[in-house]
């Protein structure tokens, strides 16, 4: 039915829709207090705001044009940022600088990595592996301030990644000259993916097999100079190339390195742990595990980064959903805001709850890591057996917990970005939405610093071993405490239908189901050991890898829920009850718990913690909580406290004025061209081309002619043969008689 | 423990490992026959091979360098391919040309789209909307051969995507001049994402609201000239810009268009359906649904494309997994092939089974679409009521089936690419692996031609309505036939533990669970209708959107299984029993059925089709089948029949020689530079910088001085005041007396 044009309803401007969203949420919670609660406290939040403000004004941290820079331009800009950050690294307290880097990692992940290659990996390798004299030597060479040297971390090889023990590069001790000879024996041993190698590094921390007198002592670390720091010319025996285009993080100059008989002084091998004397005696460390402790810091910071990255994507998606209108429903004369659709709420709000859970968990994880680091630092050759045991236990706990969390949190963040991107419809496919590059940058977090699948299996392996400890009567710490109440926890069930949605019940459910999946993995392992004669423990573990994977997955979801809930309990004792902060977080915590149960429903049903109808109630609760939190969804994005500059997406703007800014952004990034640059070369020849004119071939009138030729051949067969013979003679003559 | 270097085992070269894989699989199945079975038959497979061979030799289809081209270069190369394809489109039978395009879509998705914008969308709009006279007019203007015009399809707007009825652009009839005035009333009405608009199109099929005498008749289609075909200058009133950088498919010149009072003749409105007479009388079509029939072709071809794309990603990942070695297990002196790890088999082989299922389903889907198209084409204004009803039923069935399949198959393909990419570890992050760009190209398939979430809900809505029909006693066709045996199907269960893994049981399970989730959605809908007074059907449908989503998801998985199985039964009657083809496909079909059940386990448990221990048996069967199919995994990738040129990934090479070719590829793509181009500008100033020298500030000796100043001030207070007064007088004088 046609409608009169004059009578048509006009939607309010997006800015207005956005202000109404904030009005609507008024009184739900104290925004500033919730921001503090989720941001690690008032002082951290204020520091973060200061850093965001500084970045926004720093011309080198311009973000709006990054999607249209070439790889070469991105590389140069990324390197340009080193100078000011190197200033802060030496002039700011460590904790404060780390906070700064947390902000930088959200604004510019590639810079964060490239800078981190020197300060996190290269310097980290020195810190954990160098003797005191070695350390002061490298400090005098400028390693702390980047004055005179820039380091990179040459571990992985073309054919060798996760398995460090399988690396091929050799460091052969030459006792005549007191040197090591660093050598790449084959193409597959080429150092690969080395961040900083292609352009910026003067030195590398090289992982190579120590060979002394024909014996292979496994992988150790050596500092190898790559370039002359004055001219940046490659040193003799060093071949380096650019790894080239990557999925994301193109600001990092990843390179490959081949060493051909490169000689370094013996003192360039890091000798805090393993040692080689002047005479070629090799001394192995008592505790090889300590060597890799520093690598854990990367994982821990990735959990925090995953939380913030997910919050960034969700801020864009939820604000867009608040102002975007699509289809009319019911009697509404206006199109409906996306955020009003139950399915859209369900697409985004459980992910928001998960991001908040990851955020709280990351603070716990950081605290655990710091405890461990302190113990590790005070640990020395004079430590007694008990101290050694304590530090190893701590290292093991940090390792197992960080492995599983690193894997699932980086996966969660990646999935969140993708779901946010897709929730923007077509606009999510525009580079200027900011989400495609977020995805491409995040993807590698699931691979480096321990491939997620491998880490997951390690976490599952550690759970299997904890289960074995538990049935032997050991008392397990923190996140594993549910294994302390075996066997009751395995058979517990939701007490009543009415109690199904309480936080205590959800916790009991996670404990029950986590214990059961861990038990299942343990049983499968034992069974594999028993039923396959002569099988090693390693092989038996491979045979239960699917069960280990499931155990790690369920355990990690339950762990996030537990950490969220513990933070909530702690908060409840400090926060005024009337400001809505605790009440709001309680809803978010319940949403996370219920939704994660829904996602893992098969286990809750299989182990009969919930009945099918209780599961339906869980599903209904997720839908209900989504609808309830929808009302303050925009205010929740405000509490994530990310500036428009950091968000770098016209579609996620604070003020909601998305279309005008998106349009302006697209126009600015793509200046008008009167015609395509290739118009004359390609388009004009195409549309003005003429048909090939094969039709003209009819003019040849071939078939009549062929008939004539054939008749002639048949009639004058003999004559032809004679003629042919004459021709052949003529040709022969020409060939035999040389030209005069 | 150190080991003697001389005694170390050396792994065989990757090429050798790869040949052993093919030897190992020998005798499992007849490769050529399996290739025909999965490729749509012998003649289609041979045609496809011919096309791949042609592409490989065509310099314009060079693929190895695409990752390092700029956006401008990709755009130009993409456009260059138009000429030869335009030749084939007019010189080849339609069916054969479609086969060619199926190959092209895998080799170059951006070209496929850009070319398809003209031939699929613009020409499709003419075919379904133009009268006979209009059609011959545009044919005489060169629409078939691109000689004189190139079309684009201007539907979506900046603020309006999926809801075509909500578009803002107006086409106002001016009865004095017999013209329409095309106008963009606001920024949000800017035509957006229009492929071909930025550079190549001369004309657009514009979707705009038809306004006649102040009345709005809703969205119709108008052909609007954009550029002078001779000069490509924009016509008056047309503003066009480049949309710029996208997540993928940068070869397409997506643009935005604003119309400012652009006049077109009345005859440029497509009038097969809605019509406007010279006098301004508007005649609406009896069957508005028929207008969008042509849009379905895109969806149908996307199901086929999803299957091939998934197979392409899996070929790379499985071949890489066959030659990549990592970690030692057991007593093996060599590192283990990734493909030997149970977890790696589980990551890839179920996805392979799913890709095969999608392939078989796509053939069925294409057949259904072709039936519908034939009926639609023979349909005219002289068709009687029965014919009309038949064509509408067919359209509805095709719509509902294609909606759900388009959504889940494009999602499946996207997920498959991502999982394959991640399974390559770090190398999956290299652009040269081919997988990052596959992901970025595929992502948009989940959004355009109907956003997947919206299509899923449409599919769910159609299932709810089918359920209502079924309980009223209607007999439902094909993939919905399980609803014909209500209510028995709802309460059926796996008969015995022994029967759990049979294909018949799996089928019964899918029928039972599909019927139950559809029932649940229907009940939730009825309940929403009843318990909310005065609610519309539309609103009630929104309230059960989660249940509709779940219903559509389960139904789609079950549908893929059913189609696979039907194809298998058909094949079994034609294929010799001893060549292993049917036996192998049966395993793959069982793997798909069991794995998809595992993925949807909660429903199979909830509706008690399987007991928890039967579910464990399903899980064990997935693991077992993965291990069994591992033996012929490489040969299965061969049966997907994709050339190395099409794969364009040194890591997925047929011969397995991955490291040498990957290294050579990286070197060729990134020529050696002696130092970074920005060395003098950025790196040298950084590493040669000196400290800021704030320490020197001590030389100022400020505090002693300040004390002196203060003492002077306190001692000679009066003098100072006098001096001050003098100074003020002086200044006043200067101010009061104007300069001479």
Automatic annotation (TrEMBL), chains A, B:
The keyword Lipid metabolism applies. Residues 1-23, 707-740 are annotated as: Disordered. Transmembrane segments: none annotated. Residues 503-687 form the Acyl-CoA oxidase C-terminal domain. The active site is at 449 (proton acceptor). Residues 713-726 have a biased composition (Acidic residues). GO terms for cellular component: peroxisome. This is Acyl-coenzyme A oxidase. It comes from Rhodotorula graminis (strain WP1).
